[in-house]
Amino acid sequence: MVFEALSRLGSKADRILLYPQEWDLEIESTSDRDSQLLVIARDRYDVKLLPVVIPKADDDAWNGSFTKFMAWEQTQYDRVLHLDSDVTILKQLDELFMLPSAPVAMLRAYWRLPSVRQLTSLFILFEPDEMEAQQLMVAASPNVRQKNEYDMEILNKFYGDSAMVLPHRQFGLLSGEFRVDDHRNYLGNTHERWDPERVLREASLVHFSDWPIPKPWIMWPHNMIQDEMPKCKLGIGAGGDDCRDKKAWLGLYDDFRKRRKDICALLSAPAPEWHPPPRNTTEASD
Fold first, then answer.
1. In whole angstroms, what is the distance from residue 102 CA to residue 84 CA?
2. Phi and psi torsions of 120, nearest 5°
3. Which of 162, 223, 237, 248 is least surrounded by Cβ atoms within 10 Å, i.e. has the fewest?
């Protein structure tokens, strides 16, 4: 879906996909979805498919981090932009390749401010380097990585004090921003008025992060969504209720699911069981 969006928006940059070498491009049956999707990416969206060896480990977090860090090995390119799959791209991103040289450029995890100043791994522009790739993969290995340490923490160890910081207001809007009342961290000031329609128009990318709501390829538990979706703000006087946050948020999820069905021929996964979290429980966005 990311590749479809880049193609539709007219991106001129090469599109590459690293995938496990045990997958193949021979479609053996209608249920062979991995092969079908690889072929669609290659034939429809001109994606360069690069099979890679992913070491086995009983740690999904490490496997995911390892694959991401293997992108640093793509030294045939001066720069690579790594995007997570749980995003909707709204505008072309080719302008990023024209930025001044920097080993890494990332977004600030604005939702964790002011208590935590950290960069987020959802969007990484970097200059490939084989030595950096090796060091990152060693840092991500199970015998080196600390418990509860993921790619975001590792990247901050490496680049937290040296990365070029990109503007989150354009490239790092979280879907969960439409569910909160305090937007000072996103806006970066206390005087600007929150306008969800304008914010969405200005955004180049939206990252789906709505804990405890599942990712958009998973259906919502019915007993969850009424409590967790954005609420309309009561109108004052003759003014009607303001439901723009709710409309924008629902629109993002509806659009993602529709495109996933149309492009990938995939329906949403069944909703998980839902048990409300304890009061005052918080969790960092992913």
1. 21
2. -105, 145
3. 237
